[in-house]
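Below: protein 1.
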Amino acid sequence: MNVSLLITCLADTFYPRTGIAAVKVLEHLGCRVEFPEAQACCGQPLFNNGFEDDARELARRIVDVFEDSEYVVTPSGSCAAMIREYYRQLLDDDPAYSRAAAALVDKTYEFIEFLVRVLKVDLAALDISWPGHVTYHYSCHLRGIGVTDEATRLMQQIDGIRYTPMEKMDQCCGFGGTFAMKYAQISGSMVRDKVACIAETGAETVVSNDSGCTMNLSGACRRGGCDVQFISLAELIAEGMGLLERRERHEPAS
């Protein structure tokens, strides 16, 4: 099975270890992974701020880059949702791109979604161990692509994990891309509420699969004195499989 990785801007810049982990896990599960270097932003920031023509140009580029891919996998519900929810809207009236855009929509998956729905992975059968107390933040954009409890189901298949659900798990963290800049006071109130919910779990580690949420929540936790570390489920699985060395608490990301 051939997979192309859409790394996303924030993961590429701030959380490259997530991309590395995703590749290692996919290869371990038998996929052949490629990384098209010509890829760029999916266009979501421009689209969300009303610059549809500019977003359309980026959408065309993404369609071109991944046109020959069998599957496109991204470690971000946000970027997966941009492609799946809005690329048809942007390119349906473009005769040169409408069919290719629809094909891209149909073959694009968020990483955890791909493990569960396409590869149908059973981590319990793979003898994976990751001892630790974790909670989980559910990213808003996962709703748009129909992803619900896939991440928590996978975590509960991993030996050693003690999982404590977070109150208001599916409540927005307040990031929302440019929302956090346009409505800073509202965003700040929302993220402080999430920090309180994280602290209440007593977990040492927060699993967060969207880089924007991770960036927002980790900064708020640090400022609020909530002593937790953040990890993507891709990293956690890779560490549990022995594909990545387990990172000690608070060690800077490489």
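Below: protein 2.
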Amino acid sequence: MEQTEKKLWGGRFQKAADEAMEDFHSSVAVDCRMAREDIQGSLAHARMLGAQGIIPPAEAEKIEEGLLGILAECEAGKLTLKKSAEDVHMNVEQLLIARVGEAGKRVHTGRSRNDQVALDFRLYLTRGTDAVIGNLLALQSALLSTAKAHTRTVMPGYTHMQKAQPVTLAHHLMAYFEMFRRDVGRFADCKKRMDEMPLGAGALAGSTYPLDREMVRAQLGFSAISRNSMDAVSDRDFCIEFAAASSVAMMHLSRFCEELILWSTDEFRFVEMDDAFSTGSSIMPQKKNPDVAELIRGKTGRVYGDLMGLLTLMKGLPLAYNKDMQEDKEASFDALDTVNGCLSIFTRMFASLRFREENMCAAAGKGFTNATDAADYLVRKGLPFRTAHEIVGRLVFNCLEKGKAIEELSLPELQAVSWAFGADVYESISLDACVDGRCLPGGPAASAVEAHIGQSEAWLAEARQSVRGAKD
């Protein structure tokens, strides 16, 4: 611990910080990952200071040269930061002064760590959001590939975890595609509110120097500058929104994982997990556990905790900056790391799944999933729907007593319940007819699902182009 090292803010202090306080106060272990963004922000700020004549242009050039050298070390993974310098900002400034001398002491002219950290945080989370969107799009691509191969793989659809009506695996998977499509939209929308450049807000009240905020904004690629200096340094809505979007995305992943876990049980046998994404038991040699899916399901609660931590952190803070806000990054970074890690491993696991089509189809043929179609058949014969519903309900009761499916009843048995049944009923209530008849847009019929897949492929291509454009 370098207790004798002079703090850059230490002019009014006569006593060194307590060693325990140094450990408690330092945020380097967390905010070190924003070193690249901090250096880039300092580069833009220094160039602006020189262009405005706030510092001598020659010294601005020396600062730029020094910062570029530090950036090269950072990108090569050779940058060493010290806990005694408190945070990434002071570390970079100390390294700059050591490298270029007195000129380095001018880099902080017209700014505060308050607007500096707000800048770094927005830059970092913007890049992080792009990574999350990229991972979501990769998962959606995997979903589309599998869905295209299973537009006629019939399976039971459920409500209340009870068999309801037959659908297809493709239709089921495309429901998740839509969930993740909304997630992409949420992250993209969240990113819009990160896109404000706070540098120039100072500690809270701006600056008396003639700073060219627009020049800094343009260099860093922001669309706008912040409109209020107090809000600029105290706003953390963008990281709360990010954690909220992450929580919803994790909820979707968790729902998907829950279904895959159920489907992999011996009771369902709809899917088999690949050995590469499963584990065994230390005592039961027959076990093949879906640990990846279970762990993602568990990590969902972790991201919820990050969101609640951020909301609780900010709920009682007066304007403007408060030291409490140092706690914002750990939760945000954890949410970012967790959602990216889960999306990445889930996509690889999903691509390795083996779906048991025969078991899905057999399950769809049980549980009276064609009962609604039997009622619809009677409606087409002229009966009111509510009457048809009652008739089929009685049929189901009779079938349960006899241990038969509706289509296993003879025509006389059907006609004993209603005169409206004819020989054509069997074709009308077959699984294929039940699925193919639901050809409205958004339905499970192969034609409807194929149209949905085609629209989704076009959307995915556009979304990928948008992400590439953002990176450029």
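The first strand starts at residue 154 and ends at 159.
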